[in-house]
Specification:
Number of domains: 2
Shape: globular
CATH class of the largest domain: Mainly Alpha
CATH topology of the largest domain: Arc Repressor Mutant, subunit A
CATH superfamily of the largest domain: Winged helix-like DNA-binding domain superfamily/Winged helix DNA-binding domain
Number of strands: 0
Mean pLDDT: 81
Oligomer: single chain
Largest sheet: none
Helix content: 55-70%
Distance between the termini: 54 Å
CATH architecture of the largest domain: Orthogonal Bundle
Low-confidence stretches: 88-104, 193-202
Number of helices: 9
Order of helices and strands: HHHHHHHHH
Radius of gyration: 18 Å
Length: 202
Amino acid sequence: MDETALITAAKQGDLDSFNRLVLVYQDMVYGHACRMMGDAHEADDATQEAFISAFRHIHQYRGGSFRGWLLRIVTNACYDELRRKKRRSTLPLEPVTDDDESNDEMPWMVDQGERPEDAVQRKELGNAIQHCLDKLSPDFRVVVILVDIQGLDYQEASFTINKPIGTIKSRLARARLSMRNCLQSFRELLPSSFRLIEEGTK
């Protein structure tokens, strides 16, 4: 049964069909929640809440990107949780520039493949990226996750967070610059291509 048929059946209340959709998308949704929340337990809660909400409201799905629709739901769940815990929040990182709209994918997000001996360094780099994501405000963080990590195009990202494409581009450019600056503290973990790009800009 293809995705469209599963969605149609789920709209008719078929829980088994919906559970099959969950199996397809659960890793993507959980990964998104993990990066948004920076905490596995909170990501579990947000993921569970997102799928419960998706099943309750699947009749509202009108076509288009189903993954974008799911990511919108889990993003909203994460925003709700972040608002609840905002009392202890750090200050959001202010954007440095308003006009940098480079469409180039950030080098540290590209999977260049890895050898087994690189596994430890990859984990450390992942921790460094999460650290820098956590320093971003949620509005900047979500666009980096959607575009540079989840691989959504601007149109899908726009649909997911219900913002104009121009806003997506602007926030992504600022967030990438902030991530680039933050990751300079972890230069030894970055791919050599990224270090060369940075040295060339000095």
